[in-house]
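Table S7 (text form). Paired inputs.
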Amino acid sequence: MALTRQVVSTLNNDGTDVMGPSVLAFHYPDQSLVSGSLLTVEANHFAVLKSRGAVLAVYDTGQYPIQTPDKPLLGSFVTGFFGGQSPWQYEVLYVNRAKLLVRNAGLATSAEMAEMQYQVEYYVHVDTKEDALKLITHMPFAKHFIGTDEVAAYAGPVVEQAINQIVQVTPMEKINEHIHEIVELVKEHLGSFLGVYGVTLNDAKVLILPKDERMRELISLRAFGLSEMDAVRYYVALKMAEKGLVSAPNAAVGQPFFIGGSTMGTFPVTNALQSVGSDPAAGK
């Protein structure tokens, strides 16, 4: 049966585009494309045309008829060798040129070896036809797609190395003071790495915070100007208040707690920590 000519496009029958906000490249799944088919390239795409593994052309926005690169084979030669079908079959790879959002997350360690979790968000795009060719040459397809998840997986070790380069030699409380330096280092390393794949880095945002929630709360209290001991005391008092212990304000200010005129002590931090783990009724 002869192969039929067709229109090649990223649009579905309902008008939606296969190339969504998480798709960097798309391999058109029909391998029976023949000469005479019409290749459609949307305004925010590039298209790479290949035949039997060789790149024939890279297209910008527009519609293009697919033509055989050599004289057509006719008559008994085609019938005998190819069953009447054209030997020039093609594959089309679409590349998204719109800006896409990529996310990376992971763990780093501070100078005290405390675990810090980071989140990095950055925008990327493919700028030129030459870059589109780099992408489909150097980054393999997962089935018929290259998604932002694949880009994040490739870039993950680069992001981790750039962040750890500063975080590992910085005390935990001082990390946010170096956030601008960290962002610039991430952008430098990431931009250089992605450039090999024809991907341009537009901008990046980095968020770093302690993995342990208790440490995040203590650092927040320290940000109010409290000393380390005062921050711990107020933290314990907050936890006591959550449990309904009426002695929580006394723990916060380090003052004795009185019941019926008799003192219950001055609530040092060690006693307060024990109270947090006790039943609320025990402190009344």
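Next pair, protein 2 of 2.
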Amino acid sequence: MRKLPLVESLRIIGRGSLNWLAERPIVVSFEVTDACTCYCKHCDHGGPRDETRNLKPAEYRRYMEALRPCVVQVSGGEPLMRDDVVEIVRQIKRGASVPYTILVSNWSLMTGEKYLELRDAGVDQFSVSLDFPDQRHDDFRMHPGLYRHLEKLVPRLAALGHDDIVLNSCITSANVGEIDAIADKAREWGVNLCYSAYSARRTGCHDYFLSTPEQLAELNAQLDRVEARRDPTNWIVNAPTTLEATRRYFANGGAPGCKAGQRFLVVTADGELQPCSMQFKRYPLEKRALMVREFTRENQCGECYVSIRSYLDKSFPQLLWENVSGFLSVSSGGK
């Protein structure tokens, strides 16, 4: 998440504290569609899918009332493929100041008008995928012209001054040498940047996982450069501890101790619960407690370090400190 005004941050922390104690999820990711406009090399979604069983916008209220998350991701697939995505966001927010709502999208279908509609409906943050700082992004996502579209649209909308756009770059063996250049691109476009880590569990392909000494050395060198240029505006939204854990994740070939299903979970497009997007055992909404007993408490998977997990895979005191300490030295007005 980007840095928020202090009052908003404290409100989210308050809800999150209650959820932590009650063992309710802090983050819920609504995968509102399985269809996508891209065929990304590191993803198991891609192209058209059967959309006939997707939840209707009004049905999301039942999940919000039962789960009461403090942060919601609206994702897919590509959520902008749904013509009713604005109404889905309205139903999730329903006039509430929480949950903090993030739209995760490749932005191939984003327009200036759609951006403003989604902001008005209640999107607090727009997470935009970027794998390379140039046209190689098109090849990796198999979507010609996508980088040029982003290059024109992202800076124009960032210039509106809402400070709600965050590039999300998944670190792979293909782009590990571009980590610092992607950070430069985020600064050039006037937006924030979040790094996440590739997992072979999604596709079964280990080619994009960093494993050789040369790849790990390049990762450390690139992250060292990024860390050296971190500034108080929170241009890089990952906490230093998160980037350090990312280094360990690749060096160790995994990260044990995942709390998927309890601290975060996925609601599929057709309304089932999954512990995460890469664990496909499904539960009805009414059986979430069973999911925690059956899956979370017995979970030995350490095959990912996705963004949601990286925020929540910490002790509660550490999570609390990282979310409020910055306000001791940074203006609460954002950038």
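The two ends are 14 Å apart (CA to CA).
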